[in-house]
Amino acid sequence: MKIKIHIILIFLVCFAIVAFAKFCPPPLHPEPCKRDYKYNHCCSQGDCKSYDICCVEPCGNVCRRARDAETSGVAFRNGDECQFGKVNKAFWSSLFGLKEESFSHCRRASTIYM
């Protein structure tokens, strides 16, 4: 009897983790950013409404409606360096140790669990 209860509890915990996973939708404009600056609308998941998620896009971080299924979108990870508003290219390219022309190829995958 105790084994059945443990199995059911493990199943429920696994289901809860999967059910609350949030993923970013694919970028609206996936091509490299042509501007000489980024504009960050969010710098943490707490900056977005409860049903949105802070996503990394080529021209800056934006709050987007979260998806339940994994996509090609990239979620901003809390704790990563970020600055609100307009950020000049020299600032954000130096954060990653990249030359300005190589910035657009920098992507990272992450999943946010709420």
- By secondary-structure content and strand pairing, the structural class works out as alpha+beta
Radius of gyration: 18 Å
Shape category = elongated
H/E series, N to C? Answer: HEEEEEEHE
Q: Largest sheet, order of strands side by side? A: 4-3-5
**Count of helix runs:** 2
pLDDT averaged over residues = 75
Share of residues in helices: 10-25%
Total strand segments? 7
Strand content: 15-25%
* End-to-end separation: 32 Å
Query: Tell me about the biggest sheet?
Result: 3 strands, antiparallel
Which oligomerization state do the chains in this entry correspond to? single chain
Low-confidence parts: 14-19, 99-111
What secondary-structure arrangement, pairings included, does this model have?
Layout: H1 2-19, E1 21-22, E2 37-40, E3 52-57, E4 60-65, E5 74-75, E6 85-88, H2 89-95, E7 112-113
Antiparallel strand pairs: 1-7, 2-6, 3-4, 3-5
Protein described:
It is a single chain. The chain is 22% helix and 23% strand. With 114 residues, the protein is α+β, with helices and mostly antiparallel strands. The chain has a domain at 21-96. The strands form three sheets. A three-stranded antiparallel beta sheet has the order 4-3-5, with no helix packed on it.
Name the descriptors.
single chain; 114 residues; alpha+beta; two-stranded antiparallel ribbon; 2 helices; 23% strand; elongated
Can you summarize this structure?
The protein has 114 residues and is of the alpha+beta class.
